[in-house]
């Protein structure tokens, strides 16, 4: 045992501010699931005695760096976003969502956009998609949603009836479905698509002042998309087209790059904004909160081994650094637990110690044993805390910023249920040709649905977003909309 004190960290290298008290809603309130240190400790402990991803199974990845262009220290103390010219190594994984490991790259599906920053304060994972929104806004619906995207348990075939039944009964999905069925539903390549953190996060500066933040990665190559015809042809001829394109571009020195921008909302404005800013099915108006340039991300090195790096890479929205914290976004709150837990199941309790996931800083904690423990396992050092033998200790300056909570503990929906305005706004932004293509994509996707009532319910949802939108879809499906909605 050693007498030298070391900084206690999570398995991702993030300093621990309090290892004695879990985060609760007040001194007697219930424990909050966003306490990622508590969840990590308990979930790892459950697995100390000793499979394809459920979602995002098919993917490609690359190494690179992130360089700061504008110092963000007025908003966040996270060192990765401070000091102009500062470079931080990164690893990024792009993926499709619903398909299996052998599925085609060019299907109509959102693309995962997950970035791991190897910062001097531990790893920071920004785990989003190529869309700024998502289909649902509460994590309790996520297993059901993904079930509809997978194979039918009897036929083992994809099931459009299940897909549209769920979407039509979940009108909050309308905005994302409109985005998915539009031209950006099939990117030309991974290099020609934007990426988004999607959720609202909290930034906290060195003085303890907090703001709400959204992340936007804008491709420097410009957004380019793929037609249905080209996508279908490639799915048959080269199902790994996007994977191949990314590898070959980097291999020949054509390094893809993105500019990172953020939207910043003052903390107090979340209470008065015209919709709930933590609802991941909504976007913030760029007129209200303009984009602020932060830095530039460049991918300049391919993996040496796909399995060791791309397949074993693990990302979680709960892997944060000082200066970045969670918001009340219900989908984010659930993902903070679910993603890391999926990795503990799939890769193992010690996944964070694998070379691709290991932070560049020293990791000091009391996690022991478990499958595939391939380091010294703590040797003979002290293995509990608190202790009298100089083991790693918490540092209170890294405690998360306090925030107010109120209300009755109950299962309750978001306050606002306007699922239609932003979907309609997106449709109205399209030119006439894209509108026609979007309608055609939706109609073709819905034609195999076996129940007429599902088609009608979905068409009515689109009608509520925009009358022209709904009427075109109904016409394409040979449906008569009820007179009372017109």
Automatic annotation (TrEMBL):
Comp. bias intervals (Polar residues): 1-25
Keywords of the record: Heme, Hydrogen peroxide, Iron, Metal-binding, Oxidoreductase, Peroxidase
GO cellular component: cytoplasm
Biological process annotations from GO: hydrogen peroxide catabolic process; response to hydrogen peroxide
Residue positions binding heme: 339
GO molecular function: catalase activity; heme binding; metal ion binding
Record-linked InterPro entries: Catalase (IPR018028), Catalase_3 (IPR040333), Catalase_AS (IPR024708), Catalase_clade1/3 (IPR024711), Catalase_core (IPR011614), Catalase_haem_BS (IPR002226), Catalase_immune_responsive (IPR010582), Catalase_sf (IPR020835)
Catalyzed reactions per annotation: 2 H2O2 = O2 + 2 H2O
Keyword Oxidoreductase set for record: yes
Active site as annotated: 56, 129
One Pfam family it belongs to: Catalase
Residues covered by the Catalase core domain: 9-393
EC identifiers of the protein: 1.11.1.6
Names of required cofactors: heme
Region feature (Disordered): 1-27
Family statement: Belongs to the catalase family.
Annotated protein name in UniProt: Catalase
């Amino acid at each position: 045992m050693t007498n030298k004190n070391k900084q206690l960290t999570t398995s991702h290298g993030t300093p621990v501010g309090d290892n004695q008290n879990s985060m609760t809603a007040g001194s007697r309130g219930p424990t909050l699931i966003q306490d990622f240190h508590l969840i990590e400790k308990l979930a790892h402990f459950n697995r100390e005695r000793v499979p394809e991803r459920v979602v995002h199974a098919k993917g490609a990845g690359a190494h690179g760096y992130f360089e700061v262009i504008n110092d963000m220290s007025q908003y966040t103390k996270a060192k990765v976003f401070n000091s102009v010219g500062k470079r931080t190594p990164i690893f990024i994984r792009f993926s499709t969502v619903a398909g299996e490991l052998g599925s085609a790259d060019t299907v109509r599906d959102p693309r995962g956009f997950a970035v791991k920053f190897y910062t001097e304060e531990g790893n920071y994972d920004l785990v989003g998609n190529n869309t700024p929104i998502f289909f649902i806004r509460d994590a309790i619906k996520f297993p059901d949603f993904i079930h509809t995207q997978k194979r039918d348990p009897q036929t083992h075939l994809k099931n459009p009836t299940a897909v549209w039944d769920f979407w039509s009964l979940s009108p909050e999905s309308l905005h994302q479905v409109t985005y998915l069925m539009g031209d950006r539903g099939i990117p030309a390549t991974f290099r020609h698509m934007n990426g988004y953190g999607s959720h609202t996060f909290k930034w906290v500066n060195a003085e303890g002042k907090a703001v709400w933040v959204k992340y936007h990665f804008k491709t420097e190559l410009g957004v380019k998309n793929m037609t249905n015809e080209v996508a279908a042809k490639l799915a048959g001829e080269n199902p790994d087209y996007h994977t191949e394109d990314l590898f070959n571009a980097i291999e020949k020195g054509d390094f893809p790059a993105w500019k990172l921008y953020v939207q910043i909302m003052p903390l107090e404005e979340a209470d008065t904004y015209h919709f709930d800013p933590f609802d991941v099915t909504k976007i913030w108006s760029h007129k209200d909160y303009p984009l602020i340039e932060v830095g530039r991300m460049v991918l300049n090195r391919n993996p040496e081994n796909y399995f060791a790096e791309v397949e074993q890479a693990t990302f979680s929205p709960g892997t944060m650094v000082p200066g970045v914290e969670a918001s009340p976004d219900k989908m984010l709150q659930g993902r903070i637990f679910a993603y890391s837990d999926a990795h503990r199941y799939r890769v193992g309790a010690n996944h964070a110690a694998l070379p691709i996931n290991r932070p560049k800083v020293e990791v000091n904690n009391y996690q022991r044993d478990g499958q595939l423990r391939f380091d010294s396992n703590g040797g003979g050092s002290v293995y509990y805390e608190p202790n009298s033998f100089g083991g790693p200790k918490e540092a209170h300056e890294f405690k998360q910023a306090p925030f107010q909570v109120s209300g009755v503990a109950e299962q309750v929906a978001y306050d606002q249920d306007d699922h239609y305005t932003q979907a309609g706004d997106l449709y109205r932004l399209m030119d006439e040709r894209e509108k026609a293509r979007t309608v055609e994509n939706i109609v073709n996707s819905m034609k195999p649905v076996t129940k007429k009532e599902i088609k009608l319910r979905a068409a009515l949802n689109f009608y509520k977003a925009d009358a022209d939108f709904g009427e075109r879809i109904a016409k394409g499906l040979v449906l008569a909309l009820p007179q009372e909605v017109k």
